[in-house]
Amino acid sequence: MNVQTFTPQAFHRQAHDALGNPQIRSNFRRAMDGLMAKRRDAFGDWDIETLRDLGANIRLRALAKLPDLLEQLEANCQANGIRVHWAEDGEQACRIIRELCEARGARHVIKGKSMVSEEMHLNDHLEAAGIEALESDLGEYLVQLNEQTPSHIIMPAIHLNTEEISDVMHDRTGTERTIDVDYLTAAARAQLRERFMAADVGISGVNFAVAETGTLCLVENEGNGRMTTTVPPVHIAVTGIEKVVEHLRDVPPLYALLTRSATGQHVTTYFNMISGPRKPGERDGPEEVHLVLVDNGRSSIYQDNELLDTLRCIRCGACMNHCPVYTRVGGHTYGTTYPGPIGSILMPHLMGLEATKDLPSASSLCGACGEVCPVKIPIPDLLVRLRKEAVGEGRGNVEGAGVKRDRKEVLAWKGWQWLATHPGAWRAGAGVAGKFRFLSPSRLGPWTDYRTAPKPAATSLHAMVKQHRRKLEREDEK
């Protein structure tokens, strides 16, 4: 199988390739239109702005108390019988999980959906140690069969249509080639059911970790999360440190925002609350439950009063669904674990700005991402800040910041800035540009590969308005 490798450094080439692939554009356009419509309908009878304010305040309050809440979470989890492990980075988190698996002699791991595990490349780490890690979320299962990475944080295989899914399953598992969705779903369920029963360890993500009660909340639709966390003898939950919330009462508003923003559902099929391993007398559940809390650059983000807002994210994917750039080029184009608008403000901190300097500019700054974010992350403002840091004009708090622009470009923008802040000079310049508009270049570098070069108007809008007003005044005098 010819597996394509995507990197953030090659964003422009990958975007060009995606724009030239009508199948990718069709798959994403159809999927995103449906998701936007479902979200709109799901919030139809709600005071959405009040709910968004509540969600934002809950997340801000949790982040303001983050160090204390993490200690409280650890204490209450341990009181419930959950063993807590701390990981400074992804490598340490992988090592902790591998050692837990090896301590049980595990050779087969079944995984629920977890973007943090994608972020730390956990599957590759386990397989290098001789431990098979199989994804149980249907979308994750399909991209794993296809030797790809997820293209969306909620719907990993959204880039594939039914025919492509059928081909993948036929080539890798021997199912019939068909567009019968029920058949394909049933075949995948049968394939995975055996693996649940044979797994030595189950690994899951966490949507909300409640400090007050030491409870781990998982949101899902397929039941694979419940199977992953209850059938194997050991359950390992892995999450970023920012997922903690203070009280159990904070969960319902965030859950309402998450489900409606992500898939347009009022509730998901399953909502799991895990508060410990199997107790004496109980008939099911794991013998051990472990929680791995992963930093991996989050503490650095936490120290910045503006970029701290990035940690509010509840991973709903709404910003991607409404982004005109993501919708047209797809998730793989970004070459990062988290694509789209949220990835463009998060990945520079996880990978360094030098490696991801094109991502903050992968936006039209239309503001749609900020308008639909359920916890009101000011994504457009953060994109602008990272753009400045990418060219050495920002605060420079992101690792790898300070990439220098061409001197001519710098002078050109400085000149533009001066003109735009001096009205008299602007009017005079506009008049001169209008008179000599025939000298305007027809090419402006790669920008005009897909656009017509702009030309100054012969008459400015202000001049046209003045002429129109004088004409009306003359007519009134007559």
UniProtKB/TrEMBL annotation:
PROSITE patterns cross-referenced by the UniProt entry: 4FE4S_FER_1, 4FE4S_FER_2
Keywords on record: 4Fe-4S, Electron transport, Iron, Iron-sulfur, Metal-binding, Repeat, Transport
Domain 4Fe-4S ferredoxin-type: 304-333
PANTHER family xrefs: LACTATE UTILIZATION PROTEIN B
Protein's UniProt name: LutB/LldF family L-lactate oxidation iron-sulfur protein
Phylogenetic placement of the source organism: Bacteria, Pseudomonadati, Pseudomonadota, Gammaproteobacteria, Oceanospirillales
